[in-house]
Fold this sequence. Notes:
Blueprint: H1 2-16, H2 21-32, H3 42-55, E1 59-63, H4 69-76, E2 83-88, H5 91-103, E3 110-114, H6 117-120, E4 134-137, H7 144-153, E5 160-163, H8 180-194, E6 198-207, E7 210-219
Parallel strand pairs: 1-2, 1-4, 2-3, 4-5
Antiparallel strand pairs: 5-7, 6-7
Helix pairs in contact: 2-5, 3-4, 7-8
Amino acid sequence: MQEVWTQVDNYFGDRLSPAEDMLEAALLANERAGLPPIDVTRLQGKFLEFMVRISGARCILEIGTLGGYSTIWLARALPGDGRIVSLELDPRHAEVARANLENAGVLDSVDLIVGPALDTLPTLKDCASAPFDLIFIDADKKGYPEYLRWALKFSRPGTVIVADNVVRDGKVVDPECADPNVLGVRRFTEMLAVEPRLTATVLQTVGTKGYDGFALAVVLR
Ligand code: SAH
Ligand code: DHB
Ligand code: MG
């Protein structure tokens, strides 16, 4: 099925989100710098843009920048005075991201913070951008439960939380799978289930990057 998923991704992508030099350049720069090709896809980038627009977000928190491909999609959908705080562990990734964001003309609206997210998240308590209107969780999957805890701290009623890669080829339901990332996603899901401040759903996805899914939650109170 992968071949069909890729063709269909290209079919809709080419029509609804035609290739843009600046975005292609970011992916090329990532590749040249040896970053893993695990950015969101083009149509998923468009999905993130969509979430920003329908939520009317002005302040965004992203956990897991990589080369900034998703950051560019998020940033471009913001109003002029909008801001993104993006957290990245690896200084090499952050350096590539900075150049990509600059090239995309959005660096001015991004605060790129380098370090393990669990160390940098506590420093956001005095951040002028918090509480955030939209939070995109896309760093190490074993950290998702803790990232959700922090996301709730930096939320207000109406905040939208999007988390990438919660399906991972269906590994999430494989009882044999003891991968800490999968266990992280399961604990994250249990937290979504019992947290009275949240209502959540999951959108399974297929496409160029295979079979995966987004968790979507909104803060009620
Ligand atoms: N959002 C990006 C992809 C992120 S890939 C996009 O779609 O374009 C995941 C990123 O999370 C990697 O760059 C990785 O270095 C980073 N990461 C992993 N562990 C982390 C941690 N503990 N804190 C912050 N970032 C982390
Ligand atoms: C991986 C991470 C991601 O954020 C992603 O979208 C795909 C894969 C990974 O760590 O393998
Ligand atoms: Mg991801």
